[in-house]
């Protein structure tokens, strides 16, 4: 009932998962990311594949070994689907024999795509191809472009409802984590949310504390200046805000 992409950016090492489905709040259960590893667990989902799997990968276990163990232990594995990237950049995927057609996965260097209950096999193939064809784009844009190609190929054969995008930049917390939980065009909504994030939030996210810099940016003056300059740039270009936020009269 879902298709997703799990990727590691070859230049930065950043990790991302994007997912879409005709299922409510798919972003709540499918993506699991740690600073150095990522998992997407779906189909007749077992969220422990994601949580336990990501923790084990982060500790240095290899993707093939973790996947093999999860499959061996789960009596429902024939209805499960999952794919993952480990700390060494290696991928593994499982599509259970009883996943609803069309179901399958594809793996390339640093990226994997998997889906079930899809309109056709091209959903997975076109998602992967679009990712690889747009390596010049920032990771968030690349993942959304790939997912949009999968939707254009047919997507979930039942329709659309939710989507999510999560990216970690080497930290325990996400750099961005956006979701459309119940929407007629959830990938388009993710596009809007990413644009809103770019207006202010991503400036903030880039200066948060890190494992190597516990204080992050301790003074917000430079942050406020950068946001104001970008607002002026967009104003000069005639680009309005994509946000639905309101402001109370002062």
Q: Could you characterize what this model shows?
A:
This protein is of the alpha+beta class and 250 residues long. The protein has a single domain (2-183), classed as Aminohydrolase, N-terminal nucleophile (Ntn) domain (Glutamine Phosphoribosylpyrophosphate, subunit 1, domain 1, 4-Layer Sandwich). Helices cover 34% and strands 24% of the residues. It is built from 6 helices and 10 strands; from the N terminus they run E-E-E-E-H-H-E-E-E-E-H-H-E-E-H-H. It has helices at residues 47-58, 63-73, 122-133, 139-152, 186-206, 221-236, and strands at residues 2-8, 15-21, 31-34, 37-43, 80-85, 91-95, 104-108, 111-116, 162-168, 176-180. The protein has a 6-stranded antiparallel sheet, covered by helices on one side. Strands 3-4-5-6 form a 4-stranded antiparallel sheet, with helices on one face. A hairpin with a 2-residue loop joins strand 7 and strand 8. The radius of gyration is 19 Å and the shape is globular. The termini are far apart.
**Which value, in Å, is the CA radius of gyration?**
19 Å
Q: Order of strands across the biggest sheet? A: 7-8-1-2-9-10
CATH classification class: Alpha Beta
Instruction: Write the CATH homologous superfamily.
Output: Aminohydrolase, N-terminal nucleophile (Ntn) domain
**CATH architecture descriptor name:** 4-Layer Sandwich
Ends distance: 47 Å
> How many strand segments?
10
Report helical residue fraction: 25-40%
Low-confidence stretches: none
How many helices in DSSP terms? 6
At the fold tier of CATH, the topology name is: Glutamine Phosphoribosylpyrophosphate, subunit 1, domain 1
Strand content: 15-25%
Mean pLDDT: 96
By secondary-structure content and strand pairing, the structural class works out as: alpha+beta
Shape: globular
Largest sheet: 6 strands, antiparallel
- Count the domains: 1
Q: What is the N-to-C succession of helices and strands? A: EEEEHHEEEEHHEEHH
